[in-house]
């Protein structure tokens, strides 16, 4: 958790640059945000959208970690990478344009594999956000973050659907709360005047508790009381990646391997034909508008967590392209 000892004094230039945020969040929250060091694992279009938002918000540093090379699929949504950089490392190819967004944020690129990083590596950051990772990788990174008191986020976009998961462990934050109070208005020099009700905004400190990523996997159907179709799709696609190491490609549309993974979840949760339309929909590459929506939610939650301002989302957000709506599920408790 960031505290006042970890925050930096804002320079006059910083105060001018972040004037709107200071007015919205207050000085303490902006100072916490300016002290935050963020790791982004996976620089697809989804990761680029998150990076853009938190860099513009003004964190201390952002590190891109991705060992993969740029492919034609990245042209769908990865706006940091020039078209001539196909074949280059994703993290390194994203660096220049990302840095141009805000010279006051220290941005680094790391082309190592996440599996080659020891658990201690994640402890140098305040926030770790993992994308395009397998279930095994997400569990391991989340566990390392918990052991070192680092806030953990995970998420993905597959075609037109996506999710965001948040584990802030025990998180303290400040919420603006409206309250009413009676005030007396003096009249004509009389000792007693008229009373009226005024609304004031006060800051209240609150605490929320979170569960690790592995707790939300295979949630019982009884706990899924809202629109949960994308949760089932999330399990199908994560299980596919866990088994085959990658996501299905456009050339593998409707492949048997994906159908097999889908049939297991459909059978387990007794779904019938409830998600057939989603299984057969566009799950390939990442669509830019969806990266913008889901990445905007992820970035917003990272900023809220780092600044300790406003109530965080707890703990799973899913975006459904069929309804163009997002749903918040609280699972694993």
UniProtKB/TrEMBL annotation:
Which pathway does it take part in?
A: Protein modification; protein sumoylation
Q: Which CDD domains match?
A: Aos1_SUMO (cd01492)
Where is this protein chiefly located?
A: nucleus
**Keyword entries, A-Z:** Nucleus, Ubl conjugation pathway
Per UniProt, residues of the THIF-type NAD/FAD binding fold domain are: 18-322
**GO-annotated molecular function:** SUMO activating enzyme activity
Superkingdom assignment: Eukaryota
User: Has UniProt tagged this entry with the keyword Nucleus?
Assistant: yes
Q: Does the keyword Nucleus apply?
A: yes
Q: Name one Pfam family in it.
A: ThiF
* Subunit field text: Heterodimer of SAE1 and UBA2/SAE2. The heterodimer corresponds to the two domains that are encoded on a single polypeptide chain in ubiquitin-activating enzyme E1. Interacts with UBE2I.
Q: What is this protein called?
A: SUMO-activating enzyme subunit 1
Q: Which gene encodes it?
A: LOC112461564
